[in-house]
Amino acid sequence: MLDKLRTTMEGNGFEVISRISDKFGLRASKLRLLFIYLSFATLGVTFVFYLVLAFFLWVKDGLVVKRKSVFDL
Fold first, then answer.
1. Most buried one in 3, 31, 59, 65, CB count within 10 A?
2. Cα Rg of the chain (Å, integer)
3. Better-scored residue on pLDDT, 47 or 15
4. Does the keyword field hold Membrane (predicted)?
């Protein structure tokens, strides 16, 4: 069952870039490289967004002091 699934995925899944490159008239190797670069770029953008958000939350926690009661003044 697993071999059948693998064979099906290899037969249909790996032809996607070839079909797209044939449709647009591009070389398949350049299109594969583009997809690899785009995947790294999207991963990097989300990671940078996470770090910026964490920094601003850290600054907010440093500036805003929560007091538990009125007697903590």
1. 31
2. 25
3. 47
4. yes
Which of 6, 32, 7 minimizes the C-alpha distance to 19?
32
**What pLDDT digit, counting tens, does each position of 25-37 carry?**
989 889 889 988 9
The three-state DSSP-derived secondary structure of the chain is CHHHHHHHHHHHHCCHHHHHHHHHCCCHHHHHHHHHHHHHHHHHHHHHHHHHHHHHHHHHHHHCCCCCCHHHC
- Where do the structural domains in the chain lie, given as residue ranges? 2-63
Are 21 and 28 a contacting pair, CB within 8 Å? yes
